[in-house]
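re: ur question from the group chat, yeah i did fold both. here u go
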Amino acid sequence: MLHFPGGSTPRAPRASRTLSSKSTRSVAALLAVPLLAVSAAACGDGGSDGKPPSVSGSWGRTPKIDKGEGDPPSALKTKVLRSGKGQKVRKGDVISAYYVGQLWNGKEFDSSWKRKAPDTFQIGTGKVIKGWDEALVGRKLGSRVEIVAPPDKAYGEKGRPPSIPGNSTLVFVVDLKKITPGAIDGKPVDKPQNPELPKVSTTVRKDKAPSVRMPKGREEGPDRLVSETIIKGDGKKAVDEKSTILAHFTAKSWKGGQQLDDTWAQGGAPQRIPVARIAGWKEGLKGATAGSRVVISVPESSFPKQQRKQVEGGVVFSVDIVEVE
């Protein structure tokens, strides 16, 4: 995987490395993660130690979370602070949510509200910390949920230094916004693929990137940007240079066919990516709609100078556009 300036942060439970000039990865993986509702529900209430922090603020707005009192609880604690009226989250769903995370002592380590955008993550499948998987399945969209995750339901003895020390109990407040498609739903284009580009499969899977068959004997791609839509979606909104998309992508180097990136392997959820942040995307994806798969060959010269040694010969992207914002 390539690692670029901006890198991953403790937001994600796994390393997230993309071909962007800034980090585009959602916290989804950190956790990959409420005005007290009358019908507050509790989960994993074992242990009498510790009092979960009080939370104030309305759904959809940054909550204020007090620090914990006494010793942190030894078991997972979940409280529905606001019960939504939307559909229930099921195991395997890809969820869009706002959240804030802090240590038991009140020190905040992450906030999607501060990034001014929700994060996307797959729930119930081991792609996020256990505390999130166990606390959020079965909750309704529109809910605000407080999660107190002991070390064995978070990052254990190792933690995620420097922001999350080992053996930390973590406190999250999560606003469940919506369930997003986990894969594109367009139809394969009925014409031969461009021979200048690698052969990319039109099979769509939620858990695996399409195959990208690089041409034998070629160590360098076209000296100009080349793109082609091989699956066409019917989304109403088209990508422009200012668009942010929810997308999965895989990337390979023309030189040696080296795998450079693969979002499917990073946690199961598509990523929220401004197209202007990755070389060639704002040109190569222009006009494409949600539900589409676009293959883009980006020449080495299009990348910032500090990245060119890592992308010799150019890069081929296969991009699945799940949503266009």
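okk and heres the other one u asked abt
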Amino acid sequence: MRNVAEPLISATGLTKTFGDFTAVAGIDFEVHRGEAFGFLGPNGAGKSSTMRMVACVAPVTSGTLRILGLDPAADGPVIRGRLGVVPQQDTLDLELSVRDNLYIYGRYFGLPRRTLGPRIDELLEFAQLADRAGAKVEPLSGGMKRRLTIARSLVNEPEILLLDEPTTGLDPQARHILWDRLYRLRHEGVTLVLTTHYMDEAEQLCDRLVVMDGGRIVAEGSPASLIAAHSTREVAELRFPPGENAAAAARLAPTVEGRDERVEELPDRVLLYVHDGEAALRHAHELGLAPASSLVRRSTLEDVFLRLTGRTLVD
């Protein structure tokens, strides 16, 4: 829930440029204690550039950014000591054991040996890696390495945990295990800030999020509120043989009668945004259309993004 107290992160007019290229174009957002806040958008939307500024590893070009009430330009080292960071790519020492990766990282923060040992045991249990404590990192699965990276980011008991595309490249089972670990952290009161281009991940993990496109924020709210504001309750997906989508969409358009209902033609399918998906499919068959396949599903954040930008998250 949104906290009325001072935000942990506050950005106003935040901008990041690289020469003539603007990666982040004057965005405003706040993150409050105990919430899971997300940046949702496709690759190149400006999510990672924003995260690097919040992590105090990239300078702000213009605008105001405050983290834990401090200015990154003046207080970067102090802020970094109070953050946990999970980068897109794991940066583990592959030749060391699982335990030693945590131990060395803890020593970077100056944690005393007498407290670091119990802390590592706790984190290994949390990451479901206690039975691999003495194993080298290199042969571990991608999911195990990702859980170890998250455990490492928690060694210093950070006030804010930053996760940049936390499950990219993982198989579905590994993703769900990682979601469970992050869900537990969220309910323990850890403030999470994550970037993702997976709409299901954003819906699973985020209390509140912003949708980014082209370096700008195009919408903000909870996943449920964004779907309610920008999409219909259901979506009927119809797939036609190559070259038939445009004609099918034109014939289906008159059957979509609700004020907020609509037809979207994509390269590989036609989407009917409606309140009754089964009724929409029946209308399609009554028109004599014969899709190669069809399904009815609930609206997702992917549909929100399509409505706001005219393209999908994977474009």
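fwiw on the second one: The chain has a mean pLDDT of 92. The first strand starts at residue 9 and ends at 18. idk if thats what u expected
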